[in-house]
Request: fold
Amino acid sequence: MKTRIIAKLDVKPPYVVKPVHFEGLRTMGLPAELAKKYYEQGADEVMYIDIVASLYQREILFSEIESTANELFIPFGVGGGVKTIEDFSKLFHAGADKVIINTHALQENPDIINQAAQIFGNQAVVVNIEAKKWDNWYECYTDCGRIQSGKNVLKWAKEIEQRGAGEILLQCVDTDGRQRGFDLELAKAVVECVDIPVVVASGAGKLEDIKELIEYAAPSGVAIASLLHYNKYTISDIKEYLRNNEIEVSK
Amino acid sequence: MSTVIGLINYGIAGNIHSIKKAIEKAGGSVKIINEASELESVTKIVIPGVGSFKDAMQELQNSGLLEALKIAAATKPTLGICLGMQLLSSLGFEYGKTKGLGLINAEVKPMLVDAKIPHMGFNTIEIIKQNALLRGLEKEEFYFMHSYEVVNFHDILSTTEYAGHLFVSAIQKENIYGVQFHPEKSRMAGINLFKNFINL
Reply:
């Protein structure tokens, strides 16, 4: 299977921002413009995550999402502040193909995964895991690495698979935004512990990091943010590099 | 009579927005179909699909579209997309056993492969039978996201391979077409498929 190369937009409306280590924020541009740019570069998907909706207990901004979706003819995943089945439904109607959930499912109501999977199909339900490394285990965090849950990442990954999630977006609190490579052991452990696709984020700083991740952990997709936002590479640069290294990617 | 594509809107699950946008990009005009009476005025039909087989059939029943859709699809060129293709079948096995539209003699079963499920991402199609819908799209990549597949041996237009497992990625029986992938999520290849459908 061709490894998917996904552009990830962390949004603090109205701007795409780049959280550094999930903390400081830099403004990168408008979501609709960046999404269109990455689509034209050959991205296989775009993920849009409102990184403050949950923390501020704010409503999801559907109009921003709709205007971003308008430019795309590839799958569009949206998350941030999703709490109800109605939120899922409104996001699909705003143009999302997949809905990404973390905080509410982890902290309050994991059953929402089961309900959403039955209504919308499991392919449309993505669970975002924010992992933090401790001595000999990984803990699930929420709200961009701000809040601990006490839950073990691998146990939670198994649980959400059983509940019907169709995909995992795996982020890592320790490596996110630092551009110093992925946590390869974390990625491999999560990919191997479930039968659903895993998209790995947090860490791409150079092309070799992406190659190394795919060769070591075989994720279904890699989500890229900083490398693209800072114009270090385009999606087509990344794909060409991977193709030259005998890693299968789409055109 | 100019071509107007009726896009079936059923239930809370459907993402008809992106299909409408893609058909319009391909130069077609779209009418959203919310109730049975609206089917008469359209020349072609697209059945989208997000959700599970069982819920989708239930929603078609609840909205009163089910019987009218069967009648309209008997004569008007009809395209089912993803779950919409699966619904064309006689029987589905997602969350129990559910009767489908029965327009194509097929069953919908879980994909059994030694690989990640859902099958998610861009994959190529191998055209088995030359046809107007897939004209010019040989070896093109389309976006798939599904855990179930249509099992049918008679009406295959194209197949796709996933982890060594071959499955049906497009079918046709007379005026009725189905694609397992999402043309509306498949860049220009998908827009070109909609152009072919508009020109049928």
